[in-house]
Write a structure and sequence with these properties.
The structure is a single chain. With 253 residues, this protein is of the alpha/beta class. The protein folds into 2 domains: 125 residues, Rossmann fold, CATH 3.40.50.720; 112 residues, NAD(P)-binding Rossmann-like Domain (Rossmann fold), CATH 3.40.50.720. It is built from 7 helices and 12 strands. Strands 3-2-1-4-5-12 form a 6-stranded parallel sheet, with helices on both faces. Helix 3 links the parallel strand 4 and strand 5. Helix 2 crosses helix 3 and helix 5 crosses helix 6. The radius of gyration is 20 Å and the shape is elongated. The protein starts with a strand and ends with a helix.
Amino acid sequence: MNAVLILGGTTEGYQLAQALAGRPGIRAITSLAGRTANPRLPEGEVRIGGFGGIDGLTGYLTAQSIRAVIDATHPFASRMGWNAAAACAAADIPLLRIERPAWRAGPGDLWQPVATWEQAVEAVDHAATRVLMTIGRQELAPFAALTKPFFLIRSVDPPDPMPPFANAQVLLARGPFDLDGELALMTGHAIDTVVCKNSGGTATDAKLSAARQLGIRVIMLDRPARPGTPTVADAAAAVQWIMNADRSATDHT
């Protein structure tokens, strides 16, 4: 049985695990980083936690006789992407990246793209008074130095530790989110600025539509660099790639 490791945690990773579940000759294993307290579990085998860097991942690939790796991690999980590329090269295992298309500004959008969190903090400090933070809980600390704005921090789990914000409220919620809900949230809290990452996809893009309708500024962090890995846009294309690789391997045995 050909073992496929899915580096998951995204919608695409769950979709791929479901698509591979029960397929003859395929053993799909999904790896989750374990950053949320109660993660949604995908179909099939699941492992939770880190690998211990490149050497640890290389050892795991060899020990589990992995035949292919699918990097379906979040667009901002760049370290895992680089580690996967190095480990797969060391183990001589094919690697595919599912890279959902990035969001692109359209007519009516008031986007301010930034390359670093330092630039995002400066942009908030310059013109924001009531800010919706949708960046997760790992990168909040730099914004706590700003004492004037109110921050509505939306996160799956509570920040731990909570940075020392002068004026902030935590809203625990897990997407997907719809347009009506986002409009009500932003209107009810008088939000004038949204801070987010350019994650792409449809699970959390309603906030962008709401911001457009309400004339709200969006401070958008650009995606980090990724290794030059072969890439597809969705889980269906990844399934086809796996099936083609499986047939190719069979033809050469």
